[in-house]
Each structure stands twice: as structure tokens, then as C-alpha cells.
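Course assignment 3, question 2. Fill in each field.
Student: A.L.
Task: Predict the tertiary structure for the chain below.
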Amino acid sequence: RVVLSPNQSVVVAKFCFDFSPACSKNCSGAEPGNVSLEVFGGARRGPSAANTTGRPELSFALFDDQYNSFPEVAHIWDEAGCADLLRASRKAVRLPWQALATATPEKPWRSRLGLEESLRPRYWYLAFVSCSNATLDFSYRLHTTNPLQGSEAEFSMDADGVLECSALLTLLFGAVAVVQWRSASAWLQEGAREGAGAAGGISRLHPAV
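Answer field:
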């Protein structure tokens, strides 16, 4: 859920999206990054809500890490006007307020955005930007993916390889646990044969167990 004061903007997600050299020409329909947005439950709040006329202006804006996008406005985010923020964005979608006001969690307003990048993975910052003089209250669901990454599509590119690394570490620690269990069993048997008693035998033969 998001509550935006008049002319307020907020970053709701940061995600490192993939790239594709094909995007230097045209990768429409096969973008390396995808954003799926669902919004519902839009309402005006505050004492000025009843006196506000016209439809609120609300946009979903995407900024990347290039110097003339998010870095340019990050240090003045709270002071910058909505027009300045939208100008610095790489892509922005005007949200239809009437549709948001009638949308429900079961039937939300939906939009899908494809992100194109041809040089390298980049961090993208996803934000709601209000140009309205009313307080806006709404709920959203956001899903970001890197479809070219196959089974790791759900991961940000800064977590690339974490699945394989986690699987490898699980196998290694599992092997160590098996070796430790066999070692402890051997010391128990050895202590029993020497008649030292289970606890005493273990303590003298292998104090670390």
C-alpha cells in the first residue's frame, strides 16, 4: 500500500535488470527485463479530497543508474517537482485514476513494461510519481523478472549464480555432516570397546565431540 501526499513521489523497488546486445537495434518482444504492475483500491484522502476537482495525475516511472537519470535527481528527490522526475525517467506510464478507483485485488488494473538495455546489466529504480494536489491512497503488486536467465529469472542480476552457489554449499555441508556423524559413531564404538563408558570414552578419545 502507498499513500502519497500532494506532489509526492516514492521509490518502491530497486532491481538489477539483464541486458541483450540485440537491443542495440531492436529487441521488441524479447526484452531482457520485464516489469508487471497491478494497482487497485485507488482513493483520495485528507481534508482537501472533497474539494479537489479533476482526475489525479499519477505515473509509474522507471529510472536507471545512468548519470542523467536516477543519479541526477536522487539528491533532490524530495524537492524536485513531478515534471523534473518524469523528465529524468527512462520510461513512464500515466495511470488511469478512474480505473484504479474501481479496481479490486481480484480484478486489478494491469500493465506490463519491457526494459531494453544493450550494454550491461543496470540497476533500475521503480517509482510512483504524483502530480496531484490531493493525497492519493492505493495498493499495488509488482513483479520484476529477467526472462533471459531461465530458471533464475526471478533473481536480480546482482544475485546471478546464487542458486548454483547455494546448491553447492548445501552439498558440501551435507558431506561434512555425514563425515562428522560417521566419526562420532566410530568414537562411540571405540569407547565402548575399551570399557570407558559412552560419555567418558568420548571425552577422553575425542574432546571436541
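Instructor remarks: The beta strands are 2-4, 9-17, 33-45, 58-64, 91-95, 109-115, 122-130, 135-145. The first strand starts at residue 2 and ends at 4.
Grade: pending
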